[in-house]
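Hi U.,

Before I forget, here's the chain from the pilot set. I'm dumping it here mostly so it's searchable later in email.
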Amino acid sequence: MTAHTPPTPPFRDPQLPFAKRIDDLLSRLTPEEKVSFLHQFAPAVERLGIAAFRTGQEALHGVAWMGPATVFPQAVGLGATWNTDLVRRVGEAVSKEVRAMRAHDERVGLNVWSPTVNLLRHPLWGRNEEGYSEDPRLTSAIATAYTHGLRGDHPTYWRTAPVLKHWLAHNNETGRDVTSSSVRPRVLHEYDLRAFRATVEAGAVAGVMPAYNLVNGRPNHVSPYLREHLRTWADEELLVCSDAGAPSNLVDSEHYFDTHEEATAAALVAGVDSFTDHGTDGSKIVARVEGALEQGLLTPADVDAAVRRQLSVRFRLGEFDPHYDPHAGTGEFDSPAHRSLAGEAAEQAIVLLRNDGVLPLAADTRIAVVGLLADECKLDWYSGTLLHRSTPLEGLYERFGAERVEFAEGVDRVLLKTSAGTFLKVPAAPEATDRARGAEGALDPALLAGRTDLPPLTADATGTELALVDWGEGVLTLRAPDGRYLSVAEDGFLRASADRPGGWVVQETFRLHPVADADEGSGKTGNTHGNGHLLLHLGTGRPLCVAADGVRVAGPDEESPEVVEVVVVESGEDAVARVTAGADVVVVVAGNDPHINGRETEDRTTLRLPAHQERLLAAARAANARTVLALVSAYPYAIEPGPLSAVLWTAHGGQAAGTALARVLAGDVSPAGRLPQTWYADDADLPDLLDYDVIGARQTYLYFEGTPLFPFGHGLSYASFSYADLAVRVEDGTAHVSCTVTNTGDLTADEVVQLYTRAVDPSVTRPRRELLDHRRVTLAPGASAALAFDVPLSAFAFWDVAQGRWRLESGPYDLLVGASSADVRLRTTVAIEGEPSAPRPVRRRGLEAADFDEQSGVEIVDRTKASGDAVTPAAGGTGELLYRACDFGDGTTGVTVTAAGSGTVELSLDDGPVLATLTVAESARGPYEHVTVDAAFGAGGVRDLRLGLRGPLRLAHVGFTG
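Structure:
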């Protein structure tokens, strides 16, 4: 007998289309196996030879959480390059490192959760570092470039499969899983959806991740927009992966559903395909799905649809065709090319905000470099572990010579004196190994434990001098002389054990809590940090105490935590003054630590620099008038630039940050980064963090009516450029715009040419100016570049709430070309033929409540849990709605409102008196039980309609009769 080789199943046949192969594989999976695939950690199916699969690999600016990798600038820094070609190459390098790392560690996933395309609407958002820009077109251009690099160029197989974060309208960490973003239709279409849509339509996106928040009262994880919008933008299947723990939030924190079976079913039907919940344990999600199936909340077809989308991504990644996968052997890790690219990206991300001529620095300049970030190379939550490290101080040493550079960090050097007269002591630990946090890699770095192999702090007669930094809001770090930060591990003891602050719950931050009357009569002023304080450990919320076995956090029942006195040995200001007076130039390096006061889970409260750093900056200015401020931060600051000779900003620039900054300061590279978001002058310029109505609240450069500190697109150069030859031609649905840019300076430099538009006479509020396109070009001295922009006329359209669709309005449009949104060098006006304005056909269609033109005091909420919007007064008070140009035809005789809740609706025309009042009585069946109420109402012709909402009603629709 001859043994016959079993035939190859169709799902293993690379000659068949993916769709047929997926059909075959689905038919072979059991119902139980399909359900198991819905969890983030899909198990192997050994009988079919199918490996386990994990959705999710963080790769925002390098491979994160899996140990050492090339670290590129933060995403907001990549946005500041305004260079799509560079960002595409960064994405390509990251994807190659993913492949290389996976070859040695199968925990590394090919489904990458990046980039973040949330718009940087509000600069106090804690995750500002993760986005690219406040502008949707710049965001989508950068995100498209990054996803194309991550995907690779092969027509069939993808190197990695990018998932965009975080769908949708998500810019607050404060109550992020329970707050709702009220997003009117124009803001939804013109702003929040636009960045996602353009990126998805570019064809290199595998899916999206819904955000934790709610939009218009409905959690993003059950959003109808996934079906109504997202899935219409792509020909290929899109995989929707939940954010971590968000499926459980639907019941546990949001209380949107009564049971987890209901919640899981609703999310799956809405379009969530992979549930990231309960870590690696898929049993709870499996049980919920099976329960939903048993209760009739789901059908097997619903499960099949989700599994099909996941399998589509796995097939595209080459999992089932290992011999045909063109990316299988193309991994590249920490190569010279990647190191060079990290340096290039860091250089291109630097923005020169102000310069009175002090920069670039001559080669023989004597430099004092000071500041809390001068000798730091900070990492954020989504960074890999550094393979290489360059701080500003190291970069300046290398470029100018150590003999020409003086340094003072500017920390306050202190002793902590106990009530017994002793001082806190860091014991020697010669046996300790130098182990960087995260070097081993972790699928969930939030679970990395603190070190317990080092001895805890004690107290003795001499103590240890500590470096104290106040990062703002009274949040302190304390560092031992060997560079390790004081930290508290799970056993509660205080040790000098951390290489840096970090972790999901930071264990390296403290606050001095004054003891009542402790400072009275001391007469002490200035930088003493006061005396008589409890030292609170913020990670545990407990004060410290000195015990026989070492310093530890006090237990909940301990009545006598230690009262400490802060003895300042040397203030940061004194250290700065000591090194700056004799320098030719002072470079102050200030900014943030990405794990403190502004990060995931924590929004900022102010634009101001922390007071500690303002003191250092003031000391440097007082000692030396030629002071340069280099801000290294994940977000904008409000500063006083007037007294400064120069100001630069860069995001945390990754492994090559210091070298890049030194090269720019020296003039080896002319800075050409541009601000990807507005820098406001004061906190008073900002709307409430939870106000997502960028139109009504006049947010971002698109609508802001004040004077910014630095405008969107701003950035200076060491060269100068002239603009000429603006020409515009409109034909075949496209505006063809061209101009010439010439380098009139004496060194090679990049210029970022920006094209904006403005509707001259719009019928509705339109942006004051709006980016259409941009180009970053490199020009030698005297060289010119002829640039052409082809702008589809659809780019001039707006979402017409009266028609419920996009409309290109006829009329004149300014076209503005320049070096920033405020620095316009060329302008012209072009007449565009579109559609004329038309009144709202309210007599025929009525009014959807959310389709207002203007509002005051209202928020949009969910009409039902599945779909639809309603409008309610904020906090159940009063609200006003305006609907312009309502066509009542020959006249109406009545009005009908559809609403839930209780309250009154008042109707008036133009600026006239109330003509009708309708009272809605509360239903006992809850906020989704709508009733209709009628009243007499006479109106004719085209009029503006005003509605006054009084009380906690939820208005869905207004109709007219007669």
